[in-house]
DNA sequence: CGTACCCTTGACCGCAGTCAATGGAAGTGG
DNA sequence: CCACTTCCATTGACTGCGGTCAAGGGTACG
């Protein structure tokens, strides 16, 4: 029901740490950002681990990420969790075909976050009016779908090493697409191993083993929330990326 | 490149068989059907197994299914296949955020099919004009996303029995939502075990074992392309569906 | 009657899950 | 400032679900 539930105060200080790290993400140019500027919506800043939307509740709007990382997930009866997508600045999260049905997912802030909450009435108006804004909204949804297909392929048909490598690869592409630089060797990576595993269908323990292997192969390094791609070619190779075309293709990630 | 490639002639006769079976699907009321009626698009009928779009090719449009089952999938370098979604009448398949990039998936007809091919120029126009049509297009995309999230959860966090049960459950819900009747105990189910496995991240052999178990438990029966849910409660139980609310909720499938 | 496709079943194996212990880092409270 | 707690990463031993390989059978089609 409630839009914002603040979790233990401890999160605030951790969030402050992340705050500085997230700065360069503000350069994201994805369509969602414009939308949240151009339409009346509630802008909120929340601490890391804040639950924004809760599975089973009723909600009358969607979320546009403006700063930080967010996470959309689902919990099974026995507590297993499936992460559906991570939301970076510009991403739109939480639209549904039937706004009257209870939520089939939860949304929570991974880091300290700023986001816009756009009521469905506004979303409907954007679509009714058409134009550039409707296209942007459609495009944002389309990016989510691409992302979901990637995650599905990772979970369904790649082994742990391939899946983790592919996830890191496409995450770095997303970071790049939102940054000014052509390539970004090192970037903020606030996810823990459980969150990664819950997206890819692995356990935290096995994500750990897999990341250790990638590190020992000299492909990536990961320390204190900073991820560095040491050997982009090797990463792409393991991820099974075909380099047949210049990599301007498929920046969808 | 080519929009339509006809495969071995043998498929035609098999398709004719399916033809009659698919009849009742024409009752689908999903938004995509209206769209394909209201806008200039190329309507095509193809035999089962016809490849409509090919990964890596360039295509300037999207597909709206009107009759039959279609399938969107991706092939990894070594031949592993991940099915991304099955398209039933009314579903929209093949939109992308960047229409200029080569396709990251293929689309093929599972059964004999009729579909509309809508050029992106039309799609853009629909969004630019706004109104009910833009909403319908958005809603269709949103249904795809729901469907992808379901498949992701099946592949990532459910075991084989749960995943297959859940897939059958939501497929029957989709069939119901497109039919006139309240509940549909038996319906046409043209997928083979390899196709099911390629959606859920299983092998055909293991899908076989799993289906056999579901049959021996008396939950479903499946014979000659007809699937019958013998024990809906048991199916929902295995699928992990919480029956806390009347089941009008979450018909997204 | 032969062939192609698909389903079924069994034996075996390996990737990833489970359980458990350890240790470090960061936050909390006395 | 220092115990204490919490969270998370790491590592090892063991297990099991589902993959792999292979053989056999049914059905439809040519």
Count structural domains of chain A. Answer: 2
- Percent of residues of chain A in beta strands? 15-25%
Q: The CATH topology of the largest domain in chain A, please?
A: Jelly Rolls
Largest interface: A-B, 53 and 53 residues
Number-wise, the strands of chain A total: 11
Overall average pLDDT of chain A: 84
In the CATH hierarchy, what is the architecture of the largest domain in chain A at level 2?
A: Sandwich
Structural class by sheet pairing and helices of chain A: alpha+beta
Helix content of chain A: 40-55%
Quaternary state of the chains: homodimer
What is the approximate shape of chain A?
A: globular
Q: What is the chain-wise order of helices and strands of chain A?
A: HHEEEEEEEEHHHEHHEEH
Measure the end-to-end span of chain A: 32 Å
| Unreliable spans of chain A | 1-28, 245-253
Question: What gyration radius of chain A follows from the Cα positions, in whole Å?
Answer: 18 Å
According to CATH, what is the class of the largest domain in chain A? Mainly Beta
* Assigned CATH superfamily of the largest domain in chain A: Jelly Rolls
Strand order in the largest sheet of chain A: 1-8-3-6
Specify the number of helices of chain A: 8
